[in-house]
Queue: 4 jobs
Job 1
Amino acid sequence: MPKFNVRNLCETTRDKLKDAITEMENFLNAHNLQQLNSEDDPEMEEFYKSYLSDTRHLLVFCEVGYEKIGVSLRRQTFNHEYAEKVLFDVYHNCINNFFYPKNECYSEDGRYAYTGQDAIRFRKKPTRAVRDLTIYLSKIFEELREELSYYETDYVTQRRMQGESS
């Protein structure tokens, strides 16, 4: 991929990660388990514990990706290889952790992706705040997934071919 494109992709990825980080931080700072599970339902308590855990993990992955992209963009000479590695990491750590959360509180139903409906389906019916955050993040990570899809397979294939020819 041309260096100019990688630099632009780093800049847009950094901006989108910043938006996601801000939303997750605001949510986590404003909500706790007791607030989310106001009805004292044991099943919902487990659901919210899992959801909050997944959100905290995703936040950390996004912050790390954001910092690495920032390092890449601040270098005096743009390091194309390092930037591609960082974008690969963002794809596999941030995007995959959003769409495939460890605790599976929600999942993406691809049948809805082309209908204009939300493709996110929750295991339990969450509060409006949880739903709104997840849907907002899904839009960010869907855009990132489309922009960084190259790094899902082509980047790894390219690296393997370079390793074999060296």
Job 2
Amino acid sequence: MDCNKLARTATKAGVMLLESGAETYRVEDTMRRICQAYGASVVDAYATPTMIIISFSIHEELYHNIKRTQIKSVNLSKIDKVNDLSRRITKESMSLEEFYIRLEKIDEEGVYPTKIMLLGAAICSFGFAFFFKGTLKDALCSLVLGVLLKSLMIFADKFDFNSFFKYLLGGAFTTLGAIVCSRLSLLDSIDTTIIATIMLLVPGLAITNAVRDTVSGDLVSGLARMAEAVIVAVAIALGSGLVFTLLGGY
């Protein structure tokens, strides 16, 4: 067996999980399981939001790999599939080559179809409007703005916009759209419409994982994820506040 390929395979699985929004402990546990399933011992896995390290020994030879990472998006489907595959190899016979091929197929699936993401944005923004005690007019405006906002975020992702600028643009677009709807008398509460739509940008998973990592003792990952969530929140607030300032309120 190619031990260097085992190190690269375990690292690839970890990167796929981390870039899909998985928790630190899940990433490290999955990499350990993969290495141990193919006979490795003394396995050490370390993951942060920006780096993954795997180290293990086979026949008293030490192997390791380091990979730079970036958190790209939230893809719970990919997390589930990689998680399931890493546990299946401990129960059934599967060569390292076959495991790697299956891992590649999961990685090639990419994100959810655009239509599904837009539908999800529409449902969420529409529902949040009622959650914040808005009227039907507020909900309908939130639905339209939610779809347009998600389209803008998808466009920004295709061109690899800077994360801070992307969320600043999202906050500004949402506020501008709500102000336009208000001046056209298409809604009853501009505040409810803005909040319901901006909820699509709130980094809820990042905050949840930050708290979970911190409680689990992964302080570096916890602080990094919390810093990311704070930066996103600041960007959204700046974008929204900038539009209000330029337009002199509503």
Job 3
Amino acid sequence: MVKSLCEVVVTFIALLFSIVLSSASLAWGFSQSGFSSFSTFFLLLGIGWFFSIWQEWQWYASFTLFVFVSAAALGLWFGFTPGWMFAGGIFVLLAWEMSNFRHRLRLISNDKDLRGIERRHLLRVSLLVFVGLLLSNIAMFFVRASFTFEWGMLLLVITLLGLGQLPFWLRK
């Protein structure tokens, strides 16, 4: 019971949020550049990822990682809004890692400290996401100085989620 509760609550929520943020970021970035059909495609891939979690298709996370990172790279190549391309790439990496981490949690025996393992892993991954977003902001500022309202709102949401996790990390 503890194993399934530990796995489902925090890692599953992080996985769902990262899928939504990655597909929405790429969809918004491509939509702003006039490619609304690609936006629909990314949203459908995100919905497909939810379905693959339910069906326990392990391969779908790697497939979506390849498609999203390739699309983000092409979007940067063609001069789309870099913030959304960076966010899509960063959050798809987070979603892929959370998907693989959920699978690895299932293989760990019940006598291990699953909550501690999960907490430390999420702390490390959250710090990596923060550093990735920080570096992408620095790159956007110095390359194009393109900081839009929508990008600011995304950063605000991510900051609030990180600050919401802080009391739980400090308490333990």
Job 4
Amino acid sequence: MPLDETLSAILEAVAADAPEMDFDTLTPEEFREINGDYSEGGGEEVDVIENLNLANVDGGEMAIRIYRPKGVDGRSPAIVFFHGGGWVVGNLNSYDGQCRGLANRSGAVLIAVDYRKAPEHPFPTPPEDCYSALCQIAKNSEGLGIDSERIAVAGDSAGANLATVVCQMSRDRNGPEIKHQMLFYGCFDIDPDRWPSHQENIEGPILPGVMMRWFYRHYVGAEKFIGESYAAPIHSKDFSGLPSAQIITGELDILRDEGEAYAKVLKEAGVETYYECIPSLPHAFLVFFEMVPAAREVMDLACKRLADAL
């Protein structure tokens, strides 16, 4: 199907002013500037926003941003959110609008984690930071005003990869109980030659194949990396005992097929799993939820499913 008309018009307007990106020479810092990592964020009003710090796995500080929608109390369900950006770009500011929307629609406290990124901190640092953040949040749930027995994880793209891996880590390490995982257009494998959608949408909008391979190289040092399931979670030897999941993909996304495949292995392992592929939408469509009705509907329904799970 063709690209959603509203989003197509937006991307066409953005492309007119966007700089050229040569992935043979582009540096992470240049991409972060283009991505808006140094913006101030903003979006929908949220009742309370707090900025705090946790410890990363090396003893330094790791920022978190807490979004409390109206109507929450001291024992509210919580979403631990990991942002996308190919493990290289993205931060609390560039995902501020999306986090506000997710918090307001779910009615849960959303805690966004600013894990360290590649190439300065390649695999396994990002997932270890994310798992450490989950453990600290669960341990300090009373002080954070959340219910430790109603914690979900969520993420999009590389953030969905990290949320998936955190669920596997927490199961494997007897860590905090996670009630649900909400995964938008995630990366579940690091093997672009395995999945037909990588070729079908190789020139697709927002995330072309050349960009995805650039991310892989910076994160794990190669374009194929399947020996570590905490990097490529679809290669785990065991999918049982994981939290209920919803996996949402976009028809025009190169990551579509691996998302569908991960949903399938979860279902086969007895994990309650909802899967949907959204027609006419590409990678990263939630970024445009305030302007694109189809993306807003996906967010609304996903947040309702999450709220019901919690």
